[in-house]
Design goal:
A 5-stranded parallel β-sheet has the order 5-4-3-6-7, sandwiched between helices. It has 13 helices and 7 strands. It is 40% helix and 11% strand. A hairpin with a 4-residue loop joins strand 1 and strand 2. With 243 residues, the chain is of the alpha/beta class.
Length: 243
């Protein structure tokens, strides 16, 4: 693609910022242009892909669920089925089967009570709703790219993330989970852009590393303040739009 002189480029350089991992802007490279004429006339670039749990939304599993079951996290991890939640996230089983398989020993538990516990624990991480609002106000295309089961609907019902992003890329819909490279390629193919036209944000370095390896820009989430700085370094406008 022919690049304009003022276009932004993202190189394939991998940088560990402890804990941030991201792809540094490279305005000298001609490998991939985020502002190439033919694409940028059709949609605003880059496209922003956000993990949800512990990136946008507090994850109750680590904070609240052990208390719900009356056991420490270590004990919970030892007695729960190692694959049940993963299968639920991939949409391979429904919540009734999750309830049957959740514990290795098959013990019963209050499924609706667990859902209520999760619902109560969902909240925006500090500063993230405001950051999403600013990005959406600048007309950036934003999508969730997340490993989560059908219970993402509970998050949406409570927090209304769809005011800022689409839920297009959930593991329960695709049947794939990060960091499966095929999941990332599926996302890019659905969007109809090159990987370098996307910036992916996630709190797990392994997931960010995979994004970078397939050619996306990658940012490892620490908090809203550091993410805003990293996005600014990549040329993302975070100024308050004129009304």
């Amino acid at each position: 693609m022919a690049a304009t002189a003022a276009a932004m480029h993202i190189s394939t350089e991998f940088i560990n910022l402890k804990p941030n991992i991201w792809k540094k802007p490279d305005r000298a490279s001609g490998s991939c242009c985020l502002g190439s004429d033919d694409i940028s006339r059709k949609r605003k670039l880059p496209i922003l892909l956000f993990d949800v749990m512990d990136t946008i939304v507090r994850d109750p599993f680590y904070h609240d669920v052990p208390a719900f079951f009356g056991m420490p996290m270590k004990e919970l991890l030892e007695c729960k089925h190692p694959m049940a939640w993963i299968e639920f996230e991939k949409g391979l089983i429904d919540e009734e089967e999750l309830a049957r398989k959740f514990f290795i020993d098959g013990r019963d538990f209050d499924l609706e009570g667990l859902k209520d516990c999760m619902r109560s624990g969902y909240s925006y991480l500090d500063g993230m709703q405001e950051l999403l609002h600013t990005l959406a106000a600048h007309d950036f295309e934003i999508h969730a790219f997340t490993n989560y089961p059908i219970w993402y609907n509970i998050i949406e019902d409570k927090l209304k993330l769809s005011a800022y992003l689409s839920w297009a890329f959930c593991s329960c819909i695709s049947g794939k989970r990060k960091p499966d490279p095929d999941f990332y390629r599926e996302v890019v193919g659905h969007l109809g852009v090159e990987p370098c036209h996307c910036i992916f944000i996630d709190d797990r370095p392994t997931n960010v590393k995979c994004a970078i390896e397939i050619g996306m820009g990658g940012l490892c989430f620490q908090n809203a303040e550091s993410l805003a700085k990293d996005l600014s370094h990549l040329g993302i406008d975070l100024s308050v739009p004129n009304i």
